[in-house]
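agent: user wants the structure for Sec translocon accessory complex subunit YajC from Polynucleobacter asymbioticus. delegating to structure tool.
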Amino acid sequence: MWISNAFAQAPAGGVDTGGLMSFLPLILMFAVLYFIMIRPQMKRQKETKAMLEALAVGDEVVTVGGILGKVSALKDQVVTVEISAGTEVQLQKGAITTVLPKGTLKSA
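agent: tool returned. relaying tokens verbatim.
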């Protein structure tokens, strides 16, 4: 009997805007996270993909391990890099981090 009395004393229902307002900070945090972390990462991935697709024989590159060399051959996912006269290594394309300007290795 007491429970039914409690329900009978409940105030009349009105417009409840608290539900939407409680989600607003969560939505704002996600938007900030997207613009600070996710979007720049996607931009870097797109730039790296474009760099690897534009890779050509004769380009001077830096590998993930910091090795400098000149691209001597290209296949689908394998790049052959000449690191010194007569010394070549085969790497996956993903191991190339930077394409250097032409002539960088001669001055180094």
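agent: one observation worth passing along. The beta strands are 60-63, 68-74, 78-84, 87-92, 96-100.
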